[in-house]
Specification:
By secondary structure, the chain is of the alpha+beta class. Helices cover 28% and strands 26% of the residues. The structure holds FE2/S2 (inorganic) cluster and fe (ii) ion.
Length: 387
């Protein structure tokens, strides 16, 4: 496995760590080369907390779904006690995926190939016919050591994170910068209210970077701007968190204002913040906190130039399910669909040019006023690959 220094070159790494006005962004090959993706899968994603799914997808005991991080097949399970567990989705017999699709109400996990069966806590509990017809055991075969391989897992803000190598600091520590930043919000009152997903023809970093700067907003998302809009985005950088605190009055109220939306707001919002903060928790989560909902994005690389993206929306308390608020929630979904479509339009041409620019000797640059978070994100990726 090549090192990040070999793949990018020491000069390019040095240039990324210069002050923003002089700095150069990650080389194009960091977005296009499968070798770089392989290094991310080897070093970046396994050694930290990587988002892999959403707890609402496995809401009840006996729910399970396949997932993957860094090309490791996983199964996410809600066990009998209601605890979310993660296992390597690989039968201890001959490596079949034990769970191949999202399912619910399971008493146990049955491997579809030869029906080895695991309980919801991962223990191997049945090996039908292993000793011949009607013989569920045989001499010399010990079931006890053949449970599904567990993976370290945690749930925060409705999101399921895994730490593949088991050595990262606790998840609470990983998300602490965000928790500190929003200490005056009552995020515990949030309830899952809907999902959007799409596949993007670009590297996962390109799509994530498009969310953590406000520089592009007036031109890419003009629906939020009037000639008098007073707009700014302050960079926020703290440990694993990079993002912008936006000041765009009326930005997220384009569907007729809060009264028309009638969704309950965070009490802390009006007091000290304006609209539309977007923070990334490195590596692959983005969180937008708006006056009346929180949108959590997960960026999952499929390959170097393709990304699965999903956004889950969380509303305050009963606002997530109240039928009378369905039109208001629909307005929120439409707003995000429009934003995501606008950002996505840039991705395929951007990806194509990132494949060409190293050859042409063209480096990316940053606006120090707006893109400090993008630069820090790229630095964190390099630091994550180095260790
Ligand atoms: S591979 Fe799972 S039972 Fe054979
Ligand atoms: Fe955008």
């Amino acid at each position: 496995m090549s090192s990040v220094e070999t793949l990018l070159g020491r000069e390019a790494i040095k240039a990324l760590f210069r002050p923003a006005a002089e700095a150069k962004g990650l080389p194009g090959r960091a977005y296009t080369d499968e070798a770089f993706m392989a290094l991310e899968n080897e070093k970046l994603f396994p050694r930290t907390w990587t988002a892999v799914g959403v707890a609402a997808d496995i809401a009840n005991p006996g729910d399970a779904m396949p997932a993957s991080v860094a090309v490791v097949p996983l199964v996410l399970v809600r066990d009998r006690a209601g605890v979310v567990r993660a296992f390597v989705n690989m039968c201890r017999h001959r490596a079949m995926k034990v769970v191949t699709e999202r399912c619910s109400g399971l008493q146990a996990l049955h491997c579809p190939w030869h029906r080895w069966t695991y309980d919801l806590e991962g223990r191997l509990i049945a090996t039908p016919n292993i000793g011949g017809v009607g013989e569920p055991s045989c001499a010399g075969f010990e079931r006890g050591e053949l449970g599904l391989k567990p993976v370290r897992v945690g749930v925060w803000l409705g999101t399921i994170f895994v730490n593949l190598d088991g050595k990262a600091p606790p998840l609470e520590q990983h998300v602490a910068p965000f928790v500190r930043y929003y200490a005056d919000y009552h995020l515990g009152t949030l309830r899952h209210g809907g999902t959007r997903d799409l596949t993007v023809d670009a590297n996962w970093k390109l799509f994530l970077e498009s969310g953590i700067e406000d520089y592009h907003l007036p031109w890419t998302h003009p629906q939020f701007f009037t000639p008098r809009t007073n707009w700014s985005g302050r960079k926020v950088i703290d440990g694993t968190m990079v993002g912008t605190e936006s000041r765009i009055p009326s930005a997220l109220e384009s569907e007729g204002g809060t009264d028309a939306r009638r969704l309950p707001r965070f009490p802390a919002y009006a007091k000290n913040r304006d609209i539309g903060n977007f923070m990334a928790i490195v590596p692959n989560v983005g969180i937008a906190v708006t006056p009346d909902h929180v949108a959590v994005s997960i960026y999952q690389p499929i390959r170097a130039d393709r990304t699965y993206y999903r956004k889950d929306l969380y509303f305050i308390g009963d606002a997530a399910t109240d039928l009378a608020l369905e039109p208001a929630r629909q307005a929120v979904y439409r707003m995000w669909d429009e934003i995501n479509d606008q950002d996505r339009d840039f991705m395929a041409p951007l990806q194509a040019n990132h494949g060409a620019r190293d050859r042409l000797g063209i480096a990316n640059r940053f606006s120090p006023a707006w893109e400090g978070a993008v630069q820090r994100f790229q630095q964190l990726v390099v630091e994550g690959l180095r260790a």
